[in-house]
UniProtKB/TrEMBL annotation:
Residues 214-338 form the YvbJ-like NTF2-like domain. This is Uncharacterized protein. Residues 360-379 are annotated as: Disordered. Pfam families: NTF2_YvbJ (PF25155), TcaA_2nd (PF22813). Keywords: Membrane, Transmembrane, Transmembrane helix. The chain crosses the membrane at residues 6-25. It comes from Bacillus badius. Residues 31-124 form the TcaA second domain.
Amino acid sequence: MNKKSLIIIPAVILLLVIGGVFFALKQSASPEKTVDVLKKAVADDDPALLQDVIVTDNKQAAVNKTAVQALIAYLKENSSSYDAIKEGLEEQINEGDYTSTSQQISLTEDGKKWGLFPQYKLKVKTAVIKVTGQNEDDRVSLTAGKSDQAIKKQKDNKYGPVIPGIYQLKVKVINDLGTFEKKEKKEVWGSSEVSVVIDSNALASSDKGVQKAVMKAMDMFNNDIVVYQTSGFDKTKLTNVTDEVLEGSLSLQESFEAVKDYIDEIHAQYEGAVVNLDDLSVHHFDGRWSADVTALTAYNNKVKYRNVQEFEDTSFKSVNTYSLFYDQSKKKWLINDVKSREPGNQEADYWKNKQEMKMSSPPVLKWKREGSPGTEVPL
C-alpha cells in the first residue's frame, strides 16, 4: 500500500463520520423530532420537556412551568382536540408548509439550529382572560397553578396573554371589607378571550369574617337597646347606629319625657338572638357596602306604673330584619334600620343554617323614677 492510499482511507472514514454526524444533527432538528417531544411531554406529564420548543404568537405571553402544565392538562383531558393537533402537525410535515395555521398549535421555523439546519418549534395561539363582575372599588389580582403564578394585568380588566390550556385560577379581591378569594378551573382554548365572572357581593356574604362582623354589630345594638331603654331613652347609649337612626330616636326621648312621671320603674334584659344565616346578605351599591340579616330576638321586660302595685310583664320575642351600612372611616358596621314582626310558631326551628347568640347570665338593667318607692321583682 502506497503513501497515497494511506491518506485516502482515513479521509474516506472522516467523511463518513462527518456525514453520519451531519445526518444525526439534521434528524435531531427535524420537525418530526419536535412533534415527538410534544407527544412525550404529554405522555409523561412533563412540562420541562416542552418549554424550550414553544413559541407564542404574542411575545408577552409567559412560557413557564405553570403555563405549559396547563397546556398538557388540556391535551390529556381532551383527546379529540389532541388528535386534531397531531393530525394538523403531520399534515404540515407532509406538505412541508410551516406557516401559521388555524390550529391552536402548529409547527413553525424558528431560526437555525447550530447555524446549519432549520429549527422547528411549536407555535401556540394565545388568549387573554377577562375578569368581570367586580365592583368599582375592588382591587383584583389573578394567579394560576399550585405556585400561584401571577398573570399580568392589562387594561380593561384583562389578564395575560396566556397560552392555551386548563388553568387552575385564583382570583383575589381586596376591598373595604377584607380580602376574598375565588378558585376556578378555566379552559382557555379556541378563543382569543375567555371570561371569569366574580361576584363580590356573594364572596362577602359567604365570608365567615364578614358574617361575624355583621352579627356582632347586630348583637351590640340589641344590647344597647336595653341600656337605651333604662337610661331614659338617651340616644347617646346607641353606640353603633347611623346618624339617621340617632335623629329618629329623638322623638322617643321626647315621648318618654312626657310620660315618665307616670312610671315608677323599668326593668329590661336582653336574652339573646338566633340568627338566620341563610338570610344574611351583603351588597355594594353606589360606592357603599350594606348588609341585611334576620334574627329571632328575645327580651325580658317589666314595667311598674305609678300607683299600681304589680309590675306589668312587657317581655317579647320578635323576628327582626336589620339593615346595616359599613362605615369606612370607623371600619365597622352600623345599624341603619330595623323592621320587626311577630314570629311564627317555632319559626327558628325550621331555619337550616343558624347561629345562636346568647349569654349565660345576661344582666338586668333598671330605670327608676326619682322619688318612686323601691321595688325588687326578679325577671
